[in-house]
Amino acid sequence: MVTLLWIIYILDCLLLIGIILLQPGEGGDLAAAFGGASSQTAFGARGSATFLQKLTTGLAVLFMVLSIVLVMVSNTKQSNLMERSLPAASVPQPAAPASPKPAPAPAPTQPSPAAAAPAPQAPAGTAPAAKQAPAQPSK
């Protein structure tokens, strides 16, 4: 179905180009510029529409309608250009659902006597002697 629409669309484009090139230009003489050439006719200075003008109008309307239809058909198949260009592997997959059971808590253990006694704290502002960097002589 879409292929048939594209074929009609391309043929319409080619016919529209050809018919526009076949038509003569508007009257470019001096009398037509001031409206003096055949202004007393029933249809004005332009005259009645010729077969080529009617065919051009019909093909132009067909071109516009087919353009809208082809856009709507192609948008229903794929959502946008960015999604079409992404490889299938890079699309993030949803995470597996978390297990509803919580992990069992470890059994409480008896604290060791060394861990129960608080460690002595150094006074604020001084660092322990073992962690001080040795003084470097100045040169």
How would you characterize the overall build of this protein?
The model has no long low-confidence stretch (mean pLDDT 73). The protein is an all-alpha fold and 139 residues long. Helices cover 44% and strands 0% of the residues. It has 5 helices and no strands. 1% of the residues are buried. It starts with a helix and ends in a 23-residue tail after the last helix. The chain is elongated. The protein has a domain of 25 residues.
**Largest pleated sheet:** none
Number of helices: 5
Number of strands: 0
What radius of gyration results from the CA coordinates?
43 Å
Termini gap = 90 Å
Oligomer: single chain
Q: Could you say which overall geometry the principal axes of the C-alpha atoms support?
A: elongated
| Mean pLDDT over all positions | 73
**Uncertain ranges:** none
How large is the share of residues in beta strands?
under 5%
**Pattern of helices and strands:** HHHHH
Fraction in helix: 40-55%
Structural class: mainly alpha
From the structure above, extract its key features:
single chain; mainly alpha; about 45% helix; elongated
Summarize it.
The protein is 44% helix and 0% strand. The chain starts with a helix and ends in a 23-residue tail after the last helix. The protein has helices at 2-22, 30-33, 51-77, 81-85, 113-116.
